[in-house]
């Protein structure tokens, strides 16, 4: 049950972190309000790019999280079984 609660928490953290990362995605594409003047049709395309950036950010956060979990699992030493006393 503890693992399910942790995954649920990570899901919401990822949803929240993806919002600003989607804006950074648009900034890397060169779409900032200061640099361009957009028509209504172009704003629709920008909204689609924002949603794409949000999805890409969400997936990227989960990939990084699973990679970190795999590295942590591989670097932890295996517990040695205790020898039974006779």
Give keywords.
86 residues, mainly alpha, 2 helices, 74% helix, 0% strand
Q: How many beta strands in the DSSP annotation?
A: 0
Give the domain tally.
1
| Euclidean distance between termini CA atoms | 38 Å
Percentage of residues in strands: under 5%
How would a textbook summarize the main sheet? Answer: none
Q: N-to-C SSE series?
A: HH
Would you mind describing this structure in some detail?
The protein has one domain (2-66). Helix content is 74%, strand content 0%. It has two helices and no strands. The chain has helices at 2-29, 40-75. Helix 1 crosses helix 2 (40-75). It is elongated. It starts with a helix and ends in an 11-residue tail after the last helix.
